[in-house]
Design goal:
Number of helices: 10
Largest sheet: 7 strands, mixed
Order of helices and strands: HHHHEHEHEHEHEEEEHEEHE
Strand content: 15-25%
Number of strands: 11
CATH superfamily: Vaccinia Virus protein VP39
């Protein structure tokens, strides 16, 4: 309808509806922003171990070590940004062995918010190279670190790449991590063994690497190398079990570590993330442990024994 001057008369009902829609969208956006801010600061996690508490833990761990007391990794686990208790384990390890340049390379860092390097970056000022093959993960990681109050001035290096034996050294060198670094983290659900074996340009003091724990300490095997390897889920419907076909057993990683000059010092609670320390770094503080010691948890041994028949049906390469 038109008024006497020819102007269109506003439809107040439609305008009100549009305003309501806009208000709802703004409210939803506000909630999302609040959630991202809470995630960035750790406030979304009630058990988040803040920076000050971590500093106090460091002092206590060093006092304990001076008196000959060593803690089991299970006892020091906590999770701020790691998928499991690796944040606490790494904090304990570096409390004992110290740092040099606080450089960390993480392979398959996901979206950067949940990875082994995040706590070190956010709470301890480490410089990181975070690699992942997913464009979406890289987009989220860049948004997270460029907006986080503790990293936005100097965010970590973030690289979108499908890591292979053929390109891993070049990528590490391209970003300036071809040197001694404090930590290398590998969790690619596939060629983990082959990537660690191929790396020569970086010399990490500590390595944390995922293993195929379903083998326990029964075999020294890895998936055969394939640059396009993708994890595949194995399922036994009758038993109600499933396991990922990927990676390498802990004995295989121990053998590789020895070749490269590293000793196994422990693993997370269920034994699927193993920690190695270079032999010249604090041997008296973190002595070598046997692979079997990483699978003492009763739940782990029960579960892995159930999935091992699934693994034995697949192709594996024995390594020594």
């Amino acid at each position: 309808m038109f008024g006497s001057k020819g102007a269109q008369r506003p439809d107040t009902g439609a305008s009100d509806a549009r305003l309501d829609t806009i208000e709802q969208q703004l409210a939803a956006l506000g909630n999302r922003l609040a959630g991202l801010e809470a995630l960035a600061t750790g406030a979304a996690q009630p058990n988040y171990v803040d920076r000050g508490t971590q500093q106090l833990l460091t002092a206590q761990y060093r006092r304990d070590a001076a008196h000959g007391l060593r803690h089991e990794f299970e006892a020091v686990e906590f999770r701020n940004h790691s998928q499991n208790g690796e944040d606490g384990i790494l904090h304990y390890v570096f409390s004992l062995v110290g740092t040099t340049n606080r450089y960390v390379v993480e392979m398959c860092a996901g979206d950067g918010r949940e990875c082994n390097a995040a706590n070190l970056i956010i709470n301890h000022g480490w410089h990181a190279l975070l690699c992942d093959g997913s464009d979406e993960n890289i987009r989220v990681a860049n948004a997270f670190y460029w907006s986080h109050p503790d990293t936005r001035r100097i965010p970590p290096a973030i690289c979108q790449a499908w890591l292979t034996v053929e390109n891993v050294d070049e990528i590490i060198a391209r970003y300036g991590f071809d040197r001694e670094i404090d930590l290398l983290s590998i969790d690619v659900d596939g060629n983990d063994y082959w990537l660690w074996r191929a790396i020569t340009v970086a010399n990490p003091r500590v390595v944390i690497i995922e293993v195929q724990a379903g083998w326990l300490d029964d075999a020294s095997v890895t998936v055969p190398y394939d640059p396009q390897f993708c994890v595949r889920k194995l399922v036994d419907q009758e038993l109600g079990t499933e396991v990922d076909y990927c990676g390498a057993s802990l004995p295989a990683m121990v053998a590789l570590g020895r070749q490269k000059g590293y000793r196994l010092v422990g693993a997370n609670r269920y034994g699927f993330n193993a920690v190695f320390v270079r032999n010249d770094v604090a041997p008296g503080l973190l002595p070598e442990v046997d692979a079997a010691a990483c699978f003492r948890h009763p739940v782990a041994r029960w579960q892995y024994a159930r999935v091992q028949p699934l693994l034995r049906r697949e192709a594996w390469q024995e390594v020594r």
